[in-house]
From TrEMBL:
PANTHER family for this protein: LIPASE ROG1-RELATED (PTHR12482:SF62), LIPASE ROG1-RELATED-RELATED (PTHR12482)
UniProt keyword annotations, A-Z: Membrane, Transmembrane, Transmembrane helix
Keyword Transmembrane helix: yes
Transmembrane regions: 269-297
Protein species of origin: Mycena indigotica
Lineage: Eukaryota, Fungi, Dikarya, Basidiomycota, Agaricomycotina
Family indicated by similarity: Belongs to the putative lipase ROG1 family.
Protein name: F-box domain-containing protein
Domain named DUF676: residues: 24-207
Pfam families: DUF676 (PF05057)
InterPro entries: AB_hydrolase_fold, DUF676_lipase-like, Lipase-like
Length: 388
């Protein structure tokens, strides 16, 4: 995230939040590119919910940003104590961090924080704003596995939790236009949503882009011809469909060599031979590690929840029924509620030929060639960032 502007040196502050099982170092490239463009901005890269702490819940981790290790409150007090005063604030979140950032905005709104500090920029990168679509809109196996293995945060992402006395999911409450979360978000001058158009196996386009339907899902990568934003590839303005080549009367059946043929010999053969051992090790890891981590998370949450500041009861979005095959009626209502934010702008990255574009969008691993193209997204974000 980024922090407010400071009076004397005219420095806005920025705060960053990130995703499940991640570390603040995953945003190093984002911080580097942003700071090169806006060196006058004071940056706080949140470290209060690294690794398994991210399982504790969106609300719990938003409170951690305020009150625990490396907290927002303490950082602002420190800045105000050096002959400067925080006057503007911007907040950025990657993946789950985008939801934690939105919950944090709701808490700050209820505190009256924005009466003294002007909200400037909210940005999310491939954040599941409306959660994970449930069956039959997604795989029943993976949906059940994610709900079981990702703790309280997983329940909230899969909309299987109950928020307060509403009887509805937390994300449903966060998407209502009259909630403190949306009212706080509406105060920001620039609300930018970056999503992956294709190849994001972690966050589907409809959730990351807050859209009712996915125009890319109907076509293969080879069929689509993207029009990139000049100088900011892989972000696209639009896409068109290529003219299909003439098909021969007789075609040979295409040989399937398996997914590991992209590895050169002998490494692909070694991986094939080791695959049974790797699968067995993975299941053993899940059987031992997950119960320990989930038990520790549940214990932390039981201790923390009674001490947390609870927002007042607020309405949840209504269900919307349509022919859209990508999400549930509750999620359609969430999409329409979030799209009511006036300053909302959306950008999509189109990166073909990559196994999972989720980390690419923020250049999570700067040494990987596939992730390096994400620098174009980060440069666009830094360029569009509003500083008064």
């Amino acid at each position: 995230m980024s922090f407010p502007r400071l009076d004397d040196n005219h420095q806005p502050d920025k705060i960053y939040a990130y995703h499940l099982f991640s570390r603040s170092t995953h945003l190093n490239e984002a911080v580097k590119i942003f700071s090169e463009k806006h060196h006058e901005v004071h940056v706080l890269n949140a470290r209060s919910f690294e690794d398994s702490l991210s399982l504790d819940g969106i609300d719990v981790n938003a409170h951690r940003l305020l009150e625990e290790e490396n907290p927002l409150d303490a950082a602002i007090l420190a800045l105000n104590g050096v002959d400067r005063r925080v006057t503007h604030i911007s907040i950025t979140g990657y993946s789950l961090g985008g939801l934690i950032a939105r919950y944090l905005i709701g808490l700050l709104f209820l505190r009256g924080f924005f009466d003294k500090v002007q909200p400037m920029n909210y940005t999310s990168f491939t954040t599941p704003h409306v959660g994970i679509p449930p069956p039959p809109y997604s795989s029943k196996f993976w949906f059940s596995l994610g709900t079981a293995l990702l703790g309280r945060s997983g329940a909230q992402l899969h909309l299987s939790d109950t928020y307060g006395e509403t009887g509805r999911p937390l994300l449903s409450a966060m998407a209502h236009p009259e909630s403190s979360f949306c009212r706080g978000l509406a105060l920001f001058k620039n609300v930018a949503i970056y999503s992956n158009a294709i190849n994001d196996v972690t966050v589907r386009y409809v959730s990351g882009a807050i859209e009712e339907s996915d125009p890319y899902a109907k076509h293969s990568e080879d069929e689509m011809l993207p029009v990139y934003i000049p100088e900011f590839s892989p972000l696209i303005q639009s896409f068109s469909l290529r003219r299909p080549p003439a098909r021969p009367w007789l075609r040979k059946p295409r040989k399937f060599d398996g997914p590991l043929t992209v590895w050169s010999f002998p490494w692909n053969m070694i991986l094939y031979l080791c695959l049974p051992l790797l699968i067995a090790f993975w299941f053993l890891y899940l059987a031992i590690y997950c119960p320990i981590v989930l038990y520790a998370s549940e214990k932390r949450v039981k201790e923390l929840l009674p001490r947390l500041e609870t927002p007042p009861e607020m309405p949840c979005v209504s269900e919307v029924h349509s022919d859209a095959p990508e999400m549930s009626p509750v999620q359609l209502g969430m999409v329409r509620g979030l799209n009511s934010v006036t300053a909302l702008k959306k950008y999509s990255a189109f990166r073909p030929g990559i196994r999972n574009s989720h980390g690419m969008i923020i250049c999570l691993e700067s040494g990987w060639e596939d992730h390096q193209v994400g620098r174009g997204v980060l440069r666009h974000w830094a360029n569009e960032f509003v500083v008064l």
